[in-house]
Amino acid sequence: MKRNSFVMFSIVVAISMLLASCGSVATPAAQATAVSATTAPAQATTVPMATAVPTATAVPTATAKPVNTTLTVALNGEPAILQPQQPVGRLNELVNALLFEPLLSRDAQGNLQPALAESWKLINPTTWEFKLRANAKFQNGDPVTSADVKFTYEQLVLNPAAKSPHITFLQTIKTVNIIDDLTFDIITTVPDVVLPSRVADLYGGIVPQAYYEKLGETGFEAAPIGAGPYEFVSWTKNSQMVLKASPNYWGKQPAYSTLILKFITDDATRMAAVQAGEVDIASTVPPALAGEIGALPNYNVDSAPDSRYYFLVTDTTKPPFNDVRVRQALMFAIDRAALVKGLAYGYGTPLMIPFIPQTFGYDPSYPVIYDPAKSKQLLAEAGYPNGVTIDFDAFTGSIVDHSKLAEALQPQLAAAGFTTKLNIVDYGVFGPKRLAHQTAPLYIYSLGDWAFDMGVQLKSYVEGSQGYYYIDPVLGAKIDAALGEFDATKRVADYKDIQKDFYDKAPYTAIYQINQIWAVSKSVNWTPSMDEFFRFNLAQPTQ
């Protein structure tokens, strides 16, 4: 049946990529200036969302066998489960992404590009057509088909019985209609301009239906199979995971045939492994040690602005944070500049609202304000003239450390009238408690705006899901309207209004945007991506 094409407007994202690769670390102040929260990035100039659809020729195909070499990477945390629809935290999602290929991905500049799907287009406001690659295979050699896509999304994510944490982000998907083995339509419940981003990278990993149904959930977890560049070999809990390059991967073969991920949560131990030359790449170099690690003869320190930012989450369902004045008091209680300078050694950018400068539609109208006297005044107006005393949760073992910032926040909060009792646990303990809404009334968290469009994740902020407590149907309706707007200029205006609501209602207290800091052996050519994805399959031996 002949279809009528729907005319799309260009949806663009402003992305500022800053990558430093030098023998000694780049000056933090210079990096922070480049992503200043007071300077808006150029809007609607760089990255089309899906209007000019790339073809399969834009991505290299398999041309060479893996070289018999090993890449060893030290990570500051460990995944909880190897199922792309059941991760516990971002680090888990990023490890999963090495094994499970999504429909779409992003290049170094943040452009959406083909992955398992070689093309995609909007047919009408609620129908997106995707075509899979004919050469896409799972690691067991089975072809990737439309049926696998339908099974993954409908049974492992959208089925409430699956209890997938990703259901929040894919809930606009109504159904997947199979056209043929390589062609399918994703039908959405409402017009959704960011649907291509939803099925890219983080939430888009596809699993083989026949294999999964044969093994069941438990069996699949023990012997996972995806269509990514690496396949699973072994996992020694609390130690390391071994992956190998998949000969069935549709794209370019990794230069390193074996990938070893070492899980070293302690900063000192992880940096000692770098100093001893035991690893090729190490994540999360402590800012205080960046200069020392960068001075090592065999390592570079690569730093770049991250899409991730720290913020505070409050339980708005009960006192004291059900009062907007208390939430506003919290917002003015933090000396963000002092934290970036003293704790992050300049590797960060203060934020007043939970939107990074590189995100689509960012509004730079909110200067960073530190005013503890105003915090005390607001607390008094809310009925707390002597301040409040609350429990405060933080954790270790995630993609970035949250405990040290929480400790640094305590005296600042106390000076503004918030006395806190800090509880620090491992993320493996905190993550499930968070999703079950069993946290303290105040906790620290961070989020990576990996799609450079907060529309992908905003609904979870206002509907009490994903461990958040705040529910605001009015703001939710504004977000829905923005996501259904295919005119980029109008959507920027919608986002501006939404950001004002986040400032006025203060459901979350933004702190600062993080800079990634990695240690990379000079024998390896690899740079971090601003969207946080590891992409170790792109690493190459230095020529």
Please supply descriptive tags for the structure shown above:
543 residues, alpha+beta, Dipeptide-binding Protein, domain 3, four-stranded antiparallel β-sheet, 22 strands, 27% helix, disordered N terminus
What does it look like?
There is one protein chain. The chain is α+β, with helices and mostly antiparallel strands and 543 residues long. The chain has a domain of 207 residues: Dipeptide-binding Protein, Domain 3 (Dipeptide-binding Protein, domain 3, Roll). Helices cover 27% and strands 24% of the residues. It is built from 16 helices and 22 strands. Strands 2, 4, 11, 12, 13, 14, 15, 16, 17, 18, 19 and 20 form a 12-stranded mixed sheet that branches. A hairpin with a 5-residue loop joins strand 5 and strand 6. Helix 9 packs antiparallel against helix 11. The radius of gyration is 23 Å and the shape is globular.
